[in-house]
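Hey, I'm writing a tutorial for new members on how sequence and structure tokens pair up, and I'd like a real worked example in the thread rather than a made-up one. If someone can provide the structure for the chain below, I'll link this post from the tutorial.
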Amino acid sequence: MVAQVFAMCILYRAFIMYDSVKLKRFCSAVMQMTGLSAEESELFAESLVSADMRGVASHGVTRLTAYSRRVAERLVDPHARMTVIGDGGSLLLLDGNNAIGVTTAYRAMTLCIERAKENGLCFASVRGGNHFGYAAFYTELAAKNGMIGVAMSNAPAAMAPTGGKKAIIGTNPLSVAIPAKSHRPFVLDMATSVVARGKVTLAKKEGHSIPLGWGVDSDGKPTRDPARVSTVLPFGGVKGYAISIIIEVLCSCLSGAKDGLHIGSMYDYSGTRQDCGFFVGAIDYARIMPAEVFERKTAQLFETIKNSPCAEGCDEIYIPGEIEWRRMDEAREKGISLPAAVVDELQALAEKYQVPFDCERD
């Protein structure tokens, strides 16, 4: 009888849906209790919950415990402000000064958008950063402003080079967003590994196995056990490995940030700063051609791709970002499903900071 009741409780929790607006309010309240300003807390919460809405749970509220602890223990400075170190007009060197990563990357992209309106394009290499969540949060900002957006970050070493077995470089994420007149923007957001390291971490937290090919153990052997993963693998072999190096150069060599071997882990609370690097930018195509012409051409290209014949077993061809847009629409309408382990963590934060966790959909 006890086992049946327990099973019913687990089943009930699995079907609970959480309201995105309420979750954002909760995340913001928690971060404000750590000392982060209301403005930055709201921006941070928007990024965090939007990741869950997109279906990128590895970068969603599952990380709230780590983010809040780093700010509370002042491993991240809640009062820091980004500064301009080098100004080349359309090329900037910025220092996040250990502010929370979402704020730094967002302000860097905002500055690039402003400069792009003057110069046609602007890129910024940023040091003194912290984990910035999912990269598309920043490129979509550029797309909303009628520009092509680019964003990338280096990350703690978690991936072996092709032919190696030791983690030397990060899973270094990359995002590009491109507006299209009659379509939602094309949005690429990818790690340079087969999967983001966060997905392995989430599988470990939930007690799930992982597919072969995601990572290898300390002996370089493939494993399904996320707890045994010593290093994840680059996507496409040498191609993902090479792209990861390019991102490392733009984010650390150009900015002066730490490289992947020396970046602090966001889960290390021993006093280590992360000091990761970002590279973000915006391209204002309206400076060289009518915006409507460019966006019509991109829309036509996307339509041609979508209308091309489907392979057997495939019902629809998607433009990158299209699935995530649909998931966000569904999340607004139906809510967000969260793993029980993540809900337990959020409830623990609610108790710790005396913030009500009342986020279920009405």
